[in-house]
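Q: What structure does this chain adopt?
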Amino acid sequence: MEKVVSLCKRRGFIFQSSEIYGGLNSCWDYGPLGVELKNNTKGLWWKSVVQEREDIVGVDSSILMHPDVWHASGHIDNFSDPLVDCKECKHRFRADDLKELNKCPDCGGELTELRQFNLMFKTFMGPVEDQSSTVYLRPETAQGIFVNFKNIQTSARMKPPFGIAQIGKAFRNEITPGNFTFRTREFEQMEIEFFVKPGSDLEWYEYWKEERYRWYLKYGIKKDNLRIREHDKNELAHYAKVCSDIEYQFPFGWAELEGIADRTDFDLRQHSKQSGKDLNFFDEVTKESYIPYVIEPSAGADRSTLAFLVDAYDEEEDRIVLRLNPKLAPIKVAVFPLTKKDNMPEKAKDIEKMLKVYYNTFYDEKASIGRRYRRQDEIGTPYGITVDSITMKDDTVTLRDRDTMEQVRVPVKGLIEEINNRLNSL
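A:
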């Protein structure tokens, strides 16, 4: 894990937030390469669950919501972790992470009594800071979907089974964040709420477990590093009928990338009760009226990005290489002139300009061609194009593959078609 963290800092994937002031614990900034990788992760997720399907539409809801939303959802009463403090070293722990509840794991000191700690961040809306102006930073994006269920269902003319997808920030005042970007207090979720007829929920639950598992494999996660783990009954959230986690084997152990839960009709029923609004769906064909059940695949954009990074990291005898799926790679094509003379830089820049319309590209003329290749291998760039003396004679270039290091000659006029063919074959 230390090698991946070092690479992220060195090459501009991820930085400690507010680093020049000593940093802010568990907060991270995505650099030039990191933001491209994370955006690609989110883009591929959105493409697969919204753009390539006819039964899911999107929404982008507000981070700040009416406080009654969190009363209805149970977050104000139930969204808490058991907390204990050490009386000696003052370290703080989640009680459910400890093997012994009467001894500090760090110094052996005595622990305080267990108390519940609500994970929601509070703030105030308006100029007066009192209880009536209290609002919360959302701890999940799901509730923004549920409160918009009726708006979206009627305006988009959808009927169960159908889904609503959202990518957005969420905030949890975690007691023990850590493991780089895996557990943070500010994070981004990629969530689907899939509304189904009661009685069909377990069938759809099984469907979404397999569908989401295959997505990670499709974009490069090794099968040996991925598994589906069913929750025991004592693990289930207050709203869940059943739940499974898609877990990845990080260097620090197996940990959740995505949860798939059968939330039954809990959320819509609670919001209907709290708001007094009718959230039933009426089927014009069968004349049935019911509150839909919900299957929720909820993935972490930051965790998925981290998993793709860790899984792609590889060391060979003379190079470090990120074997990212090319569709995830921050930079798709790097263009190099072999030397700085004989008009090669000008030709290389013209080629990069042509390619930049279609792909995220990078131009580099510094150091030996071997070192330039290695720099791009380290950040996961799948294709390198070199302009050399032969290019100046017949308008062909060398196209190098990151993983095999195979080099072929390709006409400049055929470059876009060649790269597209390679990308579309994945």
